Amino acid sequence: MAVEINQGQREAIESYQFAGELIDVRTYGSGHINDTYLVTLKEDDNEKKVILQRMNKNIFTKPVELMENVLGVTSYLRERIIENGGDPERETLNVIPTKEGKAYFVDSEGEYWRAYKFITGATSYDAVETPEDFYQSAVSFGNFQRLLAEYPAETLHETIEGFHDTKARFAVFKKAVENDVCGRAASVKKEIDFVLAHEDVANVFGDMLAKGELPLRVTHNDTKLNNIMIDDETRKGICVIDLDTVMPGLAMNDFGDSIRFGASTAAEDEQDLSKVNCDMGLFEIYTKGYIEGCGGRLTQKEIEMLPMGAKVMTFECGMRFLTDYLEGDHYFKIHREGHNLDRCRTQFKLVEDMEAKWDTMQSIVKKYSN
Ligand code: ADP
Ligand code: GN1
Ligand code: MG
Prior knowledge:
By secondary structure, this protein is of the alpha+beta class. The chain is built from 13 helices and 10 strands. The protein has a 5-stranded antiparallel beta sheet with strand order 1-2-3-5-4, with no helix packed on it. Strands 6-8-9 form a 3-stranded antiparallel beta sheet. α4 (131-147) runs antiparallel to α8 (251-262) and α4 packs parallel to α9. It is globular. The model has no long low-confidence stretch (mean pLDDT 97). Bound molecules: adenosine-5'-diphosphate, 2-acetamido-2-deoxy-1-O-phosphono-alpha-D-glucopyranose (GN1) and magnesium ion.
């Protein structure tokens, strides 16, 4: 039976020299930005899988530069992995070139596509199943940072300008409230007031950077648990994926985004806020793994500011969800009415919980700083 696919998918698939008969194309993963498809082909009774993605060009407005970053970083990682005796087919993303030898394909509607080799025998998790998995993800993101420590950061394009410039995002948020294009502001006064009362959180890293107190590093910037592939057999973190936002950034933000997502006791869009808390056991496990993974490269100041990274990233993400809700949900994919508002509320609940547990967070981090 012929597989039902749309025009863009067909053009994209035809632009690659995939061997075998196409047997299935299905949407894949739970990312909020790109459209990901799992493509299955069959050759001599063997199934072969490929990840095909349509990049979100409204958000990633320079897809060509973005793919330059991805190629640069993955080929660099490939060399480091080979040097360390690892398996470069599974421990880094591998871009599949088109028939023309390009890292991306543009379809007849101007949409940008790319394909990655499918990492077999591994899973990306949307929630922590065992603390050990979370520890593994921490070590992987820490290692990623360490492996890229000598990467020529000046060659990286800024794929989204000011991505974690929380101060600038605060200004964008205030504009969204002012413009109130959907007439939703009055109904979310409580959430808006929460943001306005936390302006200091939005400013803290920008101010420290300006004073030269923090180093810019090559960071991932989207360190959700589901951006790590965990080996099904060994349960070790094997590969960091979703490299669209690799740019110069702050280590505390990479740490903090992982805590925001993975140390929460509930899903990012949970509606029952009594279920949403920041788990201190998971916070400790991640702290240990991340500091170990970074291999002594973090400065004392960076380590000291890790709890702040968790608070800043959680606050920023909540503010971004609320901004998108006010602006009519044009950025993050939504799957129900009020989805971005639900997401925003979980983030603010987490921020409050972190504030209540601040001393514990600081003493945990202190325990692992030497
Ligand atoms: P998004 O930016 O939308 O989050 P991702 O690049 O993270 O997109 O991909 C979405 C999901 O697809 C991932 O969470 C993972 O489950 C799966 N995935 C992505 N790349 C690969 C790969 N090379 N091999 C196996 N699974 C992958
Ligand atoms: C988006 O693409 P995805 O789902 O991994 C977003 C992150 C947010 C996250 C919230 C490019 O990540 O910044 O933290 O949603 N990515 C982009 O879940 O904006
Ligand atoms: Mg992702």
